[in-house]
Write a structure and sequence with these properties.
- With 248 residues, the protein is α/β, with parallel strands linked by helices.
- The protein is built from 9 helices and 7 strands, in the order E-H-E-H-E-H-E-H-E-H-H-E-H-H-H-E.
- A 7-stranded parallel β-sheet has the order 3-2-1-4-5-6-7, with helices on both faces.
- Helix 3 packs parallel to helix 4 and helix 4 packs parallel to helix 6.
- The protein starts with 6 loop residues before the first strand and ends in a 7-residue tail after the last strand.
């Protein structure tokens, strides 16, 4: 088991990609802190994991709450070894139709949230001279995406933030990397993308070389790898898991 006895914090873990990551980490022996705004969903995933897993209700946009929860995680298991920044949200629309309130929500969840979570876990990681941080960005942050201007900006910012923190913390033996999913079949995709545009999924399948949308289970193994000591000499990197849609 590649993560035996490691304490792993996974945000956005109640459903979709976050849930798949939490379950994959549990299968590799991690003690998983399941964090999500959806308290019932987080509790259900913790129950599914069994063992020593535990759920916390947290809005990653609330930096004070994030700090409190990370302190509780560290108190429960004495430290934190792994952070996966997976919580995210978007709603596609032309940029000219967006509002400052929409920008604030997108940036708060997708950029400020990971910043707050990273800030909270770094002290214990630095103290122990070990840590793994994996942020779920997006290929939208690498190449742009029509209808996702502010989301793309947030994810691009997350990629840049990841590289900077990787440089700052390498001397403490903390690995910091990004995984960028392409279009993936998640509850968020079904609600905000496929629901309003029923033909969208089929059109995406035609342009993805692999011939299908990504699945949460496609993303989780890449995250587990980067969170493990198998990736001990990898830091500041961005890995696309998109079925070949982007090759940059």
């Amino acid at each position: 088991m590649r993560l035996r006895d490691k304490v792993a914090v996974v945000t956005g873990a109640a459903s979709g990609i976050g849930r798949a990551i939490a379950l994959a980490m549990g299968a590799e022996g991690a003690r998983v802190a399941v964090l999500d705004l959806n308290a019932d969903g987080a509790a259900a995933v913790a129950d599914e994991l069994g063992g020593d897993a535990h759920a916390w209700s947290v809005d990653v946009a609330d930096a004070a709450r994030v700090a409190t929860v990370v302190a509780e995680v560290a108190a429960r298991w004495n430290t934190v070894h792994v952070l996966v920044n997976c919580a995210g949200w978007d709603r596609p629309m032309p940029f000219v139709e967006t509002t400052p309130e929409f920008w604030d929500k997108i940036l708060a969840i997708n950029l400020k949230g990971p910043i707050a979570c990273t800030h909270a876990v770094l002290p214990p990681m630095i103290a122990q001279g070990y840590g793994k941080i994996v942020s779920i960005a997006s290929d939208a942050g690498r190449v742009g995406s029509t209808g996702e201007a502010v989301y793309s900006a947030a994810k691009g910012g997350l990629i840049a933030f990841t590289k900077t923190i990787a440089r700052e913390t390498a001397r403490h033996r903390i690995n910091v990397n990004c995984v960028c999913p392409g279009p993936s079949d998640t509850p968020l995709f079904q609600k905000e993308f496929a629901g309003p545009s029923p033909k969208l999924a089929e059109s995406l399948k035609r342009v993805i070389p692999w011939g299908r949308l990504g699945l949460p289970e496609d993303i989780a193994p890449a995250v587990v790898f980067l969170a493990s000591d198998d990736a001990g000499y990898i830091t500041g990197q961005t890995i696309s898991v998109s079925g070949g849609l982007t090759m940059v």
